[in-house]
Amino acid sequence: MLMKLLPAWKELEPGCVVTTPGSSVNYKTGEWRSYYPKTDEDKCIACGMCWIFCPDASRRMVKRKNPKPGDLYSVYFDFNFQFCKGCGICASECPTGAITMVQEQAR
Amino acid sequence: MSNLGIFSARLLPQEELFVQGHRACQGCGPAIVLRQVAKALGPNTIVVNATGCMEIIVSPYPYNSWRLPWIHTAFENTAATASGVEAAIAILKKKGRFYTDRERIKVLAIAGDGGTADIGLQALSGALERGHDFIYMCYDNEAYMNTGVQRSSATPFGASTTTSPAGSASSGQFSQKKPLAEIAVAHHIPYVATASPSYPFDLIEKFKKAREIVGPSFMHVFAPCPTGWRCGSETSVKLGRLAVETGIFPLYEVVDGKWRMTVDTGDLLPISKYDEVRDIRGYLKMQGRFRHLTDDLIDQIQKQTIMTYKAILARCRE
Amino acid sequence: MSHQAVSEKRIGLEVSLAVAEAVKLADVDAIAAYPITPQTHIVETLSEIVANGELNAAYIPVESEHSALSACLGTIAAGARTFTATSSQGLALMHEMLFIASGLRMPVIMAVANRSLSAPLSIWGDHSDVMANRDVGWVQLFVENGQEALDITLSAFRIGEDKRVLLPVMVNLDGFTLSHVVESLIIPDESKVRRFLPPFEPLFRLDPLNPIMIGAIGIPEIYTEARKALDETLTASRIVVDETFAAFKNIFGREYHCIETYRSNDAETILITMGALSGTARLAIDELRSQGESVGLVRIRLWRPFPFDDIRAALGKAKVVVVFDRAISPGGPGGPVASEIRNALYSLEPRPKIVNFVGGLGGRDVRAKEFIEMIRTAKSKADAIDPLLYTMVGVRE
Questions:
Q1: How far, rounded to the nearest angstrom, does the alpha carbon of residue B94 sit from its chain's CA centroid?
Q2: Per residue in C285-299, pLDDT tens?
Q3: Residue C218: closest CA among chain A residues belongs to which residue?
Q4: Domain shared by C228 and C81, yes or no
Q5: Can you tell me the mean pLDDT for C185-209?
Q6: Where is average pLDDT lowest: B211-215, B277-281, C393-397?
Q7: Does residue C229 belong to the interface with chain B, where contact is any CB pair within 8 Å?
Q8: Best residue of B64, B68, B202 to probe chain A, by most A CBs closer than 10 Å
Q9: Is C273 in the same domain as C217?
Q10: How distant is the Cα of B80 from the closest Cα of chain C, in angstroms?
Q11: How many structural domains is chain C composed of?
Q12: Does the pLDDT at position B272 exceed 50?
């Protein structure tokens, strides 16, 4: 989505209307975090509670790397590194304690 | 606890109508609320938003965090603008000019506690009285958070805010929280409910119900704010749960004047155990805004909480 | 207060009801209004004609004027042709929304029955309510009589809703002295109105099939551009106003311009008025002319965007310009109209002397003989009067 951040006055939509729904996905809030949520794939039961509690819709279903026989779901929940702000709600709410907050390394 | 239609997060719609990239603080409670509400109401919804946290974080030009049509005009007039949108859709449909052959479009008005209980109360009362077909949702983070944590009439007694700060001559907020849901019930509208994002299935069920109502619904939603309440960003959901379990924010609904408690306070306790609520200290101690409270004040708050809770419980048992 | 409207026949009708008739002819979709003297007859008539099915519109009886304009922004956002009306305190109460209406480019059409502002409380007419709102970014017109009130209200929809404009329009009529008088006027024929006024097609609409965001935050990087766009649009709306008046003449036969001149072509002294008192002023001009004095009248109809070129052309050759204001800017340059006239004429070399009179405040009537006195005083004292001082007509010292 190409959006001009510094439009000329003639380019502005009348009333500064924004015609692109969901254009905020161009702003990567992932840069805010100091901690990221590390998921222990084995402990995750893919209940989805971390997903429904995330303020930033930054939990995503990922295919299990080493699915064990008897696994009910072939997915588990990991974080969206582009947008996760590292608030820690998912780690706090996970019923099996599968998520730990780990400090980001300096880049 | 009632039988919920959806009881697992995996059964909820995957589509995000309130998307990533918004500027809310880490751990923002209201953001969780909006995300859940968007899932409950679906894409055939028009959002009317008051000035406030949830408006600011979604609309810094040209970034837009909504995948729904959205309008913001001013701070105190959400209910009035929503009235206009709703009435216009109805008349244009009736005149055959637009919105014909569409599934039912629902108007959702979103405002904070400040924009509802204080400056927005007049417009809300007018819209409820006129019976417009819309859902008014107040996300209650218990202060004017967007402008820097100033007190509102929804700030609980004893909370320290920047305009009701704790000090040697003051113990924080001096008045009791305005009972918004009860004010809405007094307008005799078809549906009023309280909700908390920590009970997502209860919240979503209630909003789905509100969507089906023909007429006004008022939803008072508890929305913890780690920034304003001075607690860890990871505590939002836990606080939303504790508030319900301690009776501070009971979850109930009022359908055509009939009250019903929808969530037990406590771990799936049988209905006779509603009389007991958890000690409030667990809830208060987690938040910096209550740090200054003396034991006397805490007792006072505990008594007041039980009293208010029991009054609501009594109405649910009528 | 009902009436039988018969098209293209001349009937006697209270001017407020004529405004309501214009709204009905325009087939408005939504009205959100709050009652306030002296606008009440407009909104009462509107709710009556909606109630008896003559007009198919949503009438929202809001709980305040602020909510009235707020609801109107909601109706426009959904694409409904929208009308409201107010006066005085009501206009003041919706003040913040006036800026928002123009900033969001929402063509709400509003009739203002001009009334003085409290305190002290006054229900009677003057222009103080609208003069406090010069900067709100609306197209603003002043009408003098009942026929104009009807015609200009009808035209306002075409002007505001034009895609080159998309701005709210304020039609000002003097409270009581115009709003409550019965005049003989012509109700336009409906089929002619259909030719003159196309249905409202909004540029943007709240529609789940095409989600947009209205009312984003104007961060410092774009706010300047947004204001520039608004000013340019409002200024450029003059073209649409002229086109609309031309089309009106074509279809209905009545001709309107941004300013009206009366016997001013060769006049040495020109009187400037706005609104209903212009009728009285014309009597003064006729009387003075019959006595051989070189006087004329210029009435401003289009207040915003201000008709600078027209004013300069009409006044440039006069020696003395007498500006009659129906409002005052306390502690400032006297009357607002005089202030703007001085602005408009500043670049002229040589330029006429400008003498400012403020009167008709709070409903006080101004007679023809008082206008005559104003003109005579201005002529004799034009050189002496400090151009920045005003004279308050009829004040008891």
A1: 33
A2: 999 999 999 999 999
A3: A16
A4: yes
A5: 96
A6: B277-281
A7: no
A8: B64
A9: no
A10: 5
A11: 2
A12: no
Element (H, E) at B125: helix B121-130
Nearest by Cα to C149 from C299, C301, C331, C27: C301
Q: Which of C75, C102, C105, C225 to mutate to test the interface with B (most CBs of B within 10 A)?
A: C75
Q: Is residue C1 part of a domain?
A: no
* Residues of chain C contacting residue A9, judged by C-beta atoms under 8 Å apart: 224-226, 228-229, 232
Contact C66 B44 (CB under 8 A): no
Range of the domain at B239: 11-316
What's the CATH code of the domain at C127?
A: 3.40.50.970
Cis peptide leading into A14, omega within 30 of 0?
no
Q: Residue C154 in contact with residue C193, Cβ under 8 Å?
A: yes
Domain containing residue C363: CATH number: 3.40.50.920
Gap between the Cα atoms of C285 and C397, Å rounded = 28
User: CA-nearest residue of chain B to A49?
Assistant: B9
Q: What CATH number should be reported for the domain holding residue B264? A: 3.40.50.970
Q: Tell me, yes or no, whether C397 lies in a domain.
A: no
What pTM, to 2 d.p., does this model score?
0.95
Q: What average pLDDT does the segment B82-111 reach?
A: 97
CB within 8 A of C292, min separation 6: which ones?
none
Residues in CB range of B34: below 8 A, 6 or more apart: B18, B54, B110, B139
Res. C6: pLDDT tops 90: no
Does C345 lie in the same domain as C245?
no
Contacts of A18 in chain C (CB under 8 A): 212-213, 216
Domain end among C211, C229, C252: C252
Angstroms from C166 CA to nearest CA on chain B? 17
If contacts are CB pairs under 8 Å, which of residues 3-22 in chain B contact chain C? Answer: none
Tell whether B15 is within 8 A of chain A (Cβ): no
3-class secondary structure, C170: strand
pLDDT at C382 > cutoff 90: no
Across the interface, do C206 and B46 touch by the CB < 8 Å criterion? yes
pLDDT at residue B32 tops 90 = yes
Q: Which domains does chain A have, with CATH numbers?
A: 28-103 (3.30.70.20)
The whole-angstrom distance between B65's CA and the closest CA on chain A is: 5
d(CA C256, CA C304): 16
Residue C117 lies in a domain: yes
Specify if B5 maps to a domain: no
Percent of chain B's residues with pLDDT above 90: 85
The pLDDT of residue C212 is: 98
**Cβ B23 vs Cβ B84: under 8 Å:** no
- B221 assigned to some structural domain: yes
Q: Which residues of C lie inside 8 Å of A (Cβ-Cβ)? A: 103-106, 166, 203-204, 211-214, 216, 218, 221-222, 224-226, 228-229, 232-233
Residues C234 and C278 in one domain: no
Angstrom distance (rounded) from CA B137 to CA B139: 6
Chains near C (3 or more Cβ pairs under 8 Å): A, B
Tell me how close the Cα of B113 comes to any Cα of chain C, in angstroms: 19
Query: For residue B224, is the peptide bond before it cis, meaning its omega torsion is within 30 degrees of 0?
Result: no
B1 occurs within a structural domain: no
pLDDT confidence band for C393 (50 / 70 / 90)? very high
pLDDT of residue B3: 61
Query: ipTM for the complex?
Result: 0.94
| pLDDT-derived band at C7, boundaries 50, 70, 90 | low
Q: Do A55 and B58 touch (CB under 8 A)?
A: no
- Among C residues 58-77, those touching chain B with beta carbons less than 8 Å apart: 58, 60-64, 66-68, 70-77
Q: Has residue B2 been placed in a domain?
A: no
- Domain end marker among C189, C219, C252: C252
Question: B268 or C334: whose pLDDT is higher?
Answer: C334
Number of structural domains in chain B: 1
* Closest-approach residue (CA) in chain A for B197: A53
Q: Give the single-character DSSP code of B178.
A: P
Domain of C279 in residue numbering reads as 259-392
**Kind and range of the H or E element at C338?**
helix C336-345
Asked if C32 and C98 sit in the same domain, the reply is: yes
